[in-house]
Amino acid sequence: MADVATTTAADAGRLEALAERLDEAMARRAELDPLPRQVLNDALEAHGELHRDALTTIVTTLRADPRGKELLFALVDDPAVHMVLAMHGIIRTADPHALAEKALEGVRPGIASHGGDVKLVKVEDGIAFVQLEGACNGCSMAAVTMRNGVEKALVESVPGIRSVEVVPNPPPGTEAGATGHAADAPPEGTGWCRTFPLERFGVGTLEAMSLTPENGPAVEAIVVNTGGQLAAYVNSCAHQGMPLDNAIVDADACTLTCPWHGWSYDSTNGECLTAPGAQLEPLPLRIAEGHVWVRAGT
Predict the structure, then answer these.
(1) What is the pLDDT of residue 175?
(2) Shortest CA distance to 121 belongs to which of 112, 131, 111?
(3) Cα 53 to Cα 51: distance, rounded to the nearest angstrom
(4) Which of the residues 31, 111, 179, 267 could staple to 228 if both were Cys, CB 3.0 to 4.6 A apart?
């Protein structure tokens, strides 16, 4: 199957310019008199519904066939296709928090070399709220440079982020940890594997592991904790089967994002938020004897 053409810098610039023109035109509707504005709104609504119905049919048909599904996943990687499908609500755009975490990975080595670190707290109304730790939390020139580097990375790399605000660090020992209730006995039935102690799975963490049940082959798995809710999945992105060991976890939005191509998932049920019909393969999970147990066999 032929690969989808790679988007060039010129293509990306043209797409951004078209998006800006569309935003400006939509914003200027408020300048019209009530009657023509209503006529335009009605036309746009009907136009949008027609295109959404047609695109939904195309996506559903492609998704129903293995060959079409493979092509659909490749098409979704194209920025123009992704934008149009997202505009009509057929797919969801990448989570800003996840994109910001990915951008910060590029500046963390430099910050670490000065004995510091940066933690993304949230992204809200175009503002990224971060906590600076260690040396970069002081008032030295190096600290100022680190803060400027964080702001530059986020504003230039993440669409929608306009500024960065540094918030105070929480008092020591107040960070949220993993929650759950331990049962008295391990789960009954075959295929269950005991993994790590419950306290290892703090909120916002993801652990990758290899599980070998007594009655079957080894299974590569991940366990993620968002909002205090644990979930286990086969360690394979639905896009190209790449491992999710270093997936970006957003505990507040309950999402995890593949570090390879940015596919985002609902971490509570494995539903893909980037491409319609894609899904992580779930694994049953229990808590017993102070440990997390995952069923990797039948």
Answers:
(1) 40
(2) 131
(3) 5
(4) 179
Asked whether the predicted pLDDT for residue 202 surpasses 50, the reply is yes
**How much of the chain, in percent, has pLDDT values that exceed 70?**
83
Query: Within a 13 Å sphere around the CA of 107, how many CA atoms are in the beta-carbon half?
Result: 24
Both tokens of 101, joined, read: 């975490």
What's the per-residue H, E or C state across the chain? CCCCCCCCHHHHHHHHHHHHHHHHHHHHHHHCCHHHHHHHHHHHHHHHHHHHHHHHHHHHHHHHCHHHHHHHHHHHCCHHHHHHHHHCCCCCCCCHHHHHHHHHHCCHHHHHCCCEEEEEEEEECCEEEEEEEEHHHCCCHHHHHHHHHHHHHHHHHCCCCCEEEECCCCCCCCCCCCCCCCECCCCCCCCEEEEEEHHHCCCCCEEEEEECCCCCCCEEEEEEEECCEEEEEECCCCCCCCCCCCCEEECCCCEEECCCCCCEEECCCCEECCCCCCECCEECEEEECCEEEEECCC
Task: Output the six-digit token pair for 4.
Answer: 């989808």
User: Taking a C-beta distance cutoff of 8 angstroms, is the pair 227, 254 a contact?
Assistant: yes
Tens-place pLDDT, residues 139-173: 455 556 677 888 888 888 777 788 888 776 554 43
What the block records as the tokens of 90 is 């057929």
C-alpha distances in Å from residue 83, one per residue of 88, 260, 276: 9, 19, 14
